[in-house]
Here is the input.
Amino acid sequence: MRLRQTYCSESELKEIATFSKWIMEIGDGNNCSVFGEANISIPTYLMVSRHGDPISDIIKATYPNLGDNHDNKDYLASRAILAPHHEMVNKLNEYMLSQITREQVTYLSSDFFENEKGKPKSQDPKISAEVLNSLQIPGFPDHEIKLKIGVPVILLRNVDQSSGLCNGT
Here is the structure.
């Protein structure tokens, strides 16, 4: 977390310090078990009031006026939602994308096997295309990705540095 303004009141500085300590304890594994799932006590002041759909509520609380600011890098960089699982990240991203009124394009992964030389080979009858498409492998993109012009994408790895498709590392 980086402080972006220097004119904080004493109470704001105390709140920032308390939050920083709490989030560091979580990151260090002091507030939960290191392995598996665990319950974490979240301070009430950090919680979003639940009035209806929790996904809609947290996005509206974290990203007010998203439709008007989706291409504002400072607006996006100053906010974040932490999610415990990839499935929740997908739900949040899907909802956020639906709030932006731009044409959507869907890209699908390849659903065939390659031989050792990189050439397509006949489909293995034991593994259907549906099974391949349903796989969610850590570090690999899902079978389907939806994009809209002007909506930022974060690359987790360098794809093609000469074309500018890199993550900054």
